[in-house]
Specification:
Chains: A alpha/beta (361), B mainly alpha (362), C mainly alpha (360)
Oligomer: heterotrimer
CATH topology of one domain in chain B: ABC transporter involved in vitamin B12 uptake, BtuC
Radius of gyration of chain B: 21 Å
Number of helices of chain B: 14
Helix content of chain A: 25-40%
Largest sheet of chain B: 2 strands, antiparallel
CATH architecture of one domain in chain B: Orthogonal Bundle
Shape of chain B: globular
Largest interface: A-C, 63 and 66 residues
Strand order of the largest sheet of chain B: 1-2
Number of strands of chain B: 2
Order of helices and strands of chain A: HHEHEHEHEEHEHEHEHEEHEEH
Shape of chain A: globular
Strand content of chain B: under 5%
Order of helices and strands of chain B: HHHHEHEHHHHHHHHH
Strand content of chain A: 15-25%
Largest sheet of chain A: 6 strands, parallel
Structural class of chain A: alpha/beta
Chain lengths: 361, 362, 360
């Protein structure tokens, strides 16, 4: 039995290696995942891996239409939060500019994320990695596909990798404005923050919210709870209940699919608790929704596509606070419109550099 | 008393219910000898299909039954493969978890993706008159939804079935010594299949509680590891119904506590006091039980040390802050300590996770 | 049936069941409006379509092979270690610690980090082994629980003691080149640890079949009472088998971090290999040689699956279903081989308590 297996495995491995070396054509005439036959260094050895559908990858300065764009999400595309907003943005941009979107979602481990970017790069001239989870993946994958443009949202760049770009959304900034508004609204002088997983957007918005509250009124008590999961409504509900029970009457919840749990906790408590959420406006979900630390991933994706199409992808990471309101801003729901002046004032102050935000926000 | 207030108790019970349901079912299954790594998949199936049921028929009990049915279906697959065909229980369990996640996610998207976020009405708690007015414990314990009450009833039912029925006797025999049970005339495979299905049904109910019993929404993968927590609860509970109930409540208590503790700058003194009290109580229980001399001495020393440390910390009140990971890992560490015999003796069913085969093929 | 034809039957059944699972997925894709042929092509391309893809597949082979070997060694002593995920994580963490905290020249640094990985994995399973030896705790349960503890441990490490200086991301500092495996094929995840993994196949075969310790392990596993009467220290032998098993998983963890494409340690770098490796061992029917083609199948499915989503637009849920089906069909089909084996005289002693689980 053992010898047979040995022979079989050797045969299989030999056949496979032979197949790989023998030719680069795949079975179906679809886009090739070509890698050069000669194993040379990364920059030289990999030949063009562009889409075979007829478009040329964006070269510097040309106004080129993209035939397709790839996007890799760390989570599910229907979480009504971070992932979905980028997904929706891509689909909308695809309809507007006429390219095919190719999306990979729920990529949970580091090697798979690197593979996801590489797989997308094989067929798409522009690949967008969504989230800091893809930062490292971008650094690894981009050099292997030098003719493909890589954009990582909240990622890192490296001067030695010209085709890797980063757009950094500083989610703590609109959270700061939210904090200022919350300080204004709280009657119990107690506010709370609910976060999902311990990743940078969570810490940034936590710090930003806290700073905004403290800047307005240092006597307000602040509590922060990390639920551990963006998409667990039961945990979210319990965490929110705990904060409401401790007296918080304004809560900022950065939870994607877990947010309804928070809403229910408020309803069940019977108390007058106001909620603020990021990314997607949820004003129609209840009268106690104050506003949204709006992140228009659609706007951001649109910006990225435009930049890619005109060859203007930035070499340094591009940061977005609230200076470009198409991309990030704090938006109040109708019922709270009387605080608009405060929001505008704070936004302007931040943009003018008058407000010192905590480090990392 | 610091973080230990009525709201914390209420939260503890609410968080414990899905664990209790799933763990009770798993207890039955494991006493018969079948280890359900696929418990998580059964729970998730229950969560989704009960959601679908309520969506279609606008009736929560019917939806819960649908969820339980889905759990039973997964359990039947498990039983067919592992009990009847003697496949490896671990591997099949892992495969079923993946399948359940894939199927529920896929079906959810096929049916609901194009609609706005679907939210269903969920049942309101029913207060037991009189009892629910008790101070402190009244609201947490006696103001539950029907499914919440049923989870405690399930524990009692499990106890009754295990220790007062002939089926229970055969089940326990099948888990300890299937060959002897077989000789005595019991059909080991049939018993184990039933046990697995009970686990599936109750896990399905647990999942249903999560989705339609408490929230009225479904998210992909919403069980988030609770199935494995239930497995730990069975272990920590020493494979006994009351133990499992206590374990589920302890896990729920710890979870409710850690959510609250995050808001404090450092761990409040009351926590140390409670720790000392719990250790003292456990010590008393352990001493009352029969045990061999060496273990008794070890347990007394360790227990006494914990009590002393707890009291000291209460008095000193140091500025400590535990990382959340420590809390999240606690249930599993407790299970390991229980296994190691440091929290009293536990006895695992001897034939757990071992398929039964007669001298020749059945 | 002689050994050769029974081996061929085993291969046929195992791979056949995987093929059946793929066929079912094919059907699901077709039934829900996708293009199954494009998906199939993408699956193949993703696994073997180019040199880079083959390299990726082969690099995924490494942890699968190592974990499967670990399963086989433990199982030879009749112990079921399902804590590979945790052992991979802890092994990897130890390797990372050595890689980051020590400054040494290249081959030495790599060797030390790898050794730390092995020791870390062995130590982690050692907890379960100790519980088994001293407290008769069933190792299935204890190793399972230890997985979850390990997950939280790594989560804490990458956000605390081992976190990179900028404190911006939950990951360790970049692992220095001096501690990394040189690449077998540049710009791919494939590094020289592939050779080490294959060497482990030979080593484990040799250990189990050609050394007296290996014989002691197998005898203990087949009939513990007889082994004790033959003078074998069965407890020590079993603990040894478990430690080797954990060490192999720790090696897989070290390999993932020192040989793969990731530059640092992050959450979840074990990526489920700890469980898929068990399925590989099952598919290999307990033979170290069989581990290689079996691991190749699963590595190909994993690697190819990524491209199926990217290129053919098949949802990740369907990829999950496919993986689940493969596992369930492969595990479920083993009875076909047991049936045929049951006719042969086995080493099972009647009445020795729980009979041998299937899959040996």
């Amino acid at each position: 039995m053992s010898r047979k297996h040995l022979v079989a495995s050797l045969v299989v491995v030999t056949a496979l290696v032979g197949a790989a070396c023998g030719g680069d054509d795949d079975g179906g005439g679809a886009a090739t995942t070509a890698a050069s036959d000669t194993a040379t260094t990364a920059a030289e050895g990999v030949t063009t891996a562009g889409s075979s559908a007829g478009s040329t990858p964006a070269a510097g300065g040309e106004d080129v239409a993209l035939a397709s764009v790839g996007m890799a999400l760390p989570g599910p595309k229907n979480d009504k939060g971070f992932n979905q907003s980028h997904y929706d943005g891509l689909i909308a941009a695809g309809e507007k500019y006429g390219f095919t979107p190719n999306v990979v979602e729920n990529v949970v481990d580091p090697q798979a994320r690197i593979d996801a970017l590489k797989n997308l790069a094989a067929d798409n001239p522009l690949v967008i990695g969504v989230g800091g989870e893809y930062a490292e993946a971008g650094l690894t994958a981009a050099p292997q596909y030098p003719d493909v443009e890589f954009v990582v949202i909240n990622g890192e760049t490296d001067p030695a990798i010209p085709n890797l770009h980063a757009y950094f959304v500083r989610q703590g900034v609109p959270a700061y404005i939210a904090g200022v508004v919350a300080a204004e609204l709280t009657e119990a002088n107690k506010v709370g923050y609910l976060g999902g997983e311990l990743i940078p957007p969570t810490t940034q918005s936590d710090d930003g919210f806290k700073a905004g509250v403290a800047a307005s009124n240092p006597d307000i008590e602040y509590a922060s709870t990390i639920v551990g999961n963006f998409n667990d409504p039961e945990k979210a509900k319990e965490a929110a209940s705990a904060q409401i029970n401790a007296g918080a009457d304004v809560i900022f919840a950065l939870l994607d699919a877990g947010f309804p749990g928070v809403e229910q906790a408020v309803t069940e408590s019977g108390k007058d608790v106001l909620l603020i959420n990021p990314i997607f406006p949820r004003c129609d979900e209840g009268e106690n929704i104050v506003g949204v630390a709006f992140l228009s991933s659609g706007g951001l994706v649109d910006q990225i596509i435009n930049d890619a199409g005109s060859g203007a992808l930035p070499t340094e990471p591009q940061f977005y606070g609230v200076e470009n309101e198409e991309i990030q801003r704090f938006e109040l729901c109708e019922g709270f419109a009387e605080h608009q002046a405060l929001v505008d004032e704070t936004t302007d102050a931040i943009n003018a550099g008058e407000i010192e935000l905590p480090e990392g926000v | 008393m610091g973080p230990f207030d009525t709201a914390w108790l209420a939260s503890m019970v609410l968080l414990s219910v899905p664990l209790l349901l799933a763990a009770t079912g798993e207890l039955i299954s494991e006493r018969g000898g079948v280890l359900n790594i696929g418990l998580e998949g059964m729970m998730l199936s229950g969560a989704f299909f009960s959601f679908l049921g309520v969506y279609l028929w606008h009736n929560v009990p019917l939806g819960v039954l649908t969820g339980m049915g889905a759990g039973v279906v997964v359990a039947l697959i498990m039983a067919l493969l592992c009990v009847r065909l003697r496949s490896d229980q671990i591997v099949v369990g892992v495969g079923l978890n993946l399948l359940a996640l894939g199927v529920t996610t896929f079906t959810f998207r096929e049916i609901f993706a194009t609609q706005a976020e679907v939210r269903l009405d969920y049942p309101q708690p029913i207060a037991i008159p009189g009892l629910s007015e008790l101070p402190v414990v009244g609201r947490p314990l006696f103001q539950q939804t029907l499914l919440g009450y049923l989870s405690f009833v399930a524990v009692g039912a499990a106890w009754f079935v295990l220790y007062r029925t002939s089926f229970g006797l055969s089940l326990r025999a099948a888990g300890e010594s299937p060959a002897a049970a077989d000789t005595a005339g019991a059909s080991v495979n049939r018993i184990r299949t039933i046990g697995t299905c009970v686990a599936g049904a109750l896990a399905g109910a647990a999942g249903a509680y999560l989705s339609v019993g408490r929230l009225g929404i479904f998210n992909e993968g919403m069980t988030g590891g609770r199935g494995f927590l239930a497995l730990a609860a069975v272990i920590f509970g020493g494979w006994r119904p009351l133990g499992v109930m206590a374990a589920a409540l302890v896990f729920g208590a710890a979870d409710a506590l850690q959510l609250r503790l995050q808001s404090y700058e450092s761990i409040p003194r009351e926590v140390w006091l409670v720790m000392a009290m719990v250790a003292a109580a456990a010590l008393v229980v352990a001493r009352l039980r029969r045990g061999d001399r060496d273990t008794s001495v070890a347990v007394t020393i360790v227990g006494g040390a914990v009590v002393a440390v707890g009291v000291a910390l209460f008095v000193i009140g140091p500025e400590w802050h535990f990382p959340p990971q420590l809390w999240l890992t606690m249930p599993y560490v407790l299970a390991l300590l229980a296994l190691g015999g440091l929290v009293g003796r536990v006895h695992m069913p001897s034939a757990l996770a071992t398929p039964y085969r007669r001298g020749e093929d059945t | 049936m002689n050994r050769v034809s029974s081996a061929l039957l085993a291969i046929a059944v195992s791979f056949g069941s995987a093929a059946l699972a793929l066929a079912v997925s094919y059907g699901i894709i077709a039934a829900t409006g996708g293009d199954p042929n494009e998906a199939a092509r993408a699956l193949w391309d993703g696994a073997f379509g180019s040199r880079a893809q083959v390299a990726g597949t082969l690099s995924e082979l490494i942890p699968l092979v190592l974990v499967a070997l670990g399963w086989i060694v433990a199982f030879s002593a009749r112990r079921i270690n399902i804590g590979f995920e945790g052992q991979i994580l802890v092994g990897g963490a130890c390797a990372t610690w050595v890689a980051l905290k020590l400054s040494l020249p290249h081959p030495l640094h790599l060797g030390l980090a790898t050794a730390a990985g092995v020791l870390g994995g062995a130590a982690w399973v050692g907890i379960a082994a100790w519980l088994w030896a001293k407290r008769s705790v069933n190792e299935i349960i204890s190793t399972l629980m230890l997985n979850f503890v390990a997950i939280q441990l790594i989560s804490w490490l990458v956000r605390g003691p081992l976190q990179e200086e900028t404190r911006g991301f939950p990951r360790s500092a970049a692992i220095p080149e001096s501690a990394r495996w040189p690449k077998l094929l540049v710009a791919t995840p494939l590094a020289w640890d592939l050779i080490l993994a294959l060497a482990m196949v030979v080593a484990m075969w040799f250990l189990l079949r050609r050394t007296s310790f290996g014989f002691a392990i197998r005898l203990t596993g087949a009939n513990e009472v007889a082994a004790r009467h033959a003078g074998i220290a069965t407890t020590a032998v079993t603990v040894g088998a478990l430690l080797i098993s954990g060490g192999l998983a720790g090696l897989a963890g070290a390999s993932l971090l020192l040989g793969g494409e990731s530059t640092s340690m992050t959450d979840n770098f074990s990526a489920g290999f700890g469980f898929t490796g068990i399925v590989v061992a099952l598919l290999a029917r307990g033979s170290p040689w069989g581990v290689v083609p079996a691991a190749l199948l699963f590595a190909a499915l994993r690697q190819g699956g990524g491209l199926v989503e990217a290129r053919a637009g098949i949802s990740s849920a369907l990829v999950l279903i496919t993986q689940g089906l493969v596992i369930v069909f492969v595990a479920g089909s083993q009875f076909l081989l047991d049936r045929q084996r049951a006719v042969r005289v086995d080493a099972t002693t009647p009445g020795s308590g729980a009979p041998l689980p299937s899959g040996i």
